[in-house]
Amino acid sequence: MLNKQIPPAQLWLGNHELLIDRTTAYLQKQLCSTGCGVCRTCMQIRQQQHHAVIWICPEKGYTLAHIQEIHDRIVFALDSTERFFFVLQKADYLSTQCANSLLKSIEEPPSGYHFILCAQQLEPILPTIRSRCIINSFAHEAHNGSDALLTRYFYASSMPDPQEFAQAVQKAALSEQQAMLLVGELLTHWMQQYSTAVSKKNTQKTAIALQKVELIKQLYATPPMPGSSSLFLKQLFLQYYVGSTR
Ligand SMILES: [Zn+2]
Fold first, then answer.
1. Is 89 in a helix, a strand, or coil?
2. Ligand 1 center to residue 14 CA distance, Å?
3. Is residue 50 scored above 80 in pLDDT?
4. Coil, helix or strand for 88?
């Protein structure tokens, strides 16, 4: 799995949430032999806790300290079989100063180190950065898959009609893998809600987000059996809304 050529630096463009998903899936493919999405490695990547990935997502723009973190890490040589990834989740927020500090690292990182820069748009990215990256646009890819039709039932402020949800599940006919993808998206969403709530010191929202994260993690540990994705999703729905009011 490690003999594949991975570009030292990639610039991915598109919707922020979508890119987190795509990056997660990509890293899972690189770091888990099959990119299964459910093993410990894949789970850690999804939770942004894998030891070989540093996600850098500043609240208010990057500082030189963020870039220094990268410099400090890449002085350590990796084994020939090791891979290490830096994900700059909001590369469009890089100041000129930060971008310049980053240039040399992304141009010729030491063997095994790779960069993924995510940005909503290409325009704010300095040409010097652009020219050093393999650019991949996901901009045309809106969240409009069949799983996205179901996703909206989970972002409602109050519980949607279960009957209506059940019908949507029937219609979407997700595979087990697609069902897990949806669960993964929800986990990403609530982990972000959680960190935002913590940084804003909103204890109520922190508690809600934490509860959701924990519920979703449990589901992650018990993925649907073949042929049971509909049942799995309906259980998710009930636990998600009914379970959380307890
Ligand atoms: Zn895996």
1. coil
2. 25
3. yes
4. strand
Strands (DSSP E) found in 14-161: 53-56, 84-88, 113-119, 134-137
Contacts of 54 (CB under 8 A, 6+ apart): 69, 70, 73, 84, 85, 86, 87
Residue 149: what pLDDT?
74
Cβ neighbors of 74 (< 8 A, separation 6 or more) are 105, 109, 110, 113
Q: From ligand 1's centre to the CA of 99, what distance in Å? A: 33
CA dist 138 and 181 (Å) reads 17
φ/ψ of 230, rounded to 5, equals -65, -45
Pull the structure tokens for residue 188: 């990403």
Positive or negative: CA dihedral 12, 15, 16, 21: negative
Distance from Cα 91 to the centre of ligand 1, integer Å: 27
Mean pLDDT in residue range 50-57: 95
d(CA 222, CA 44): 16
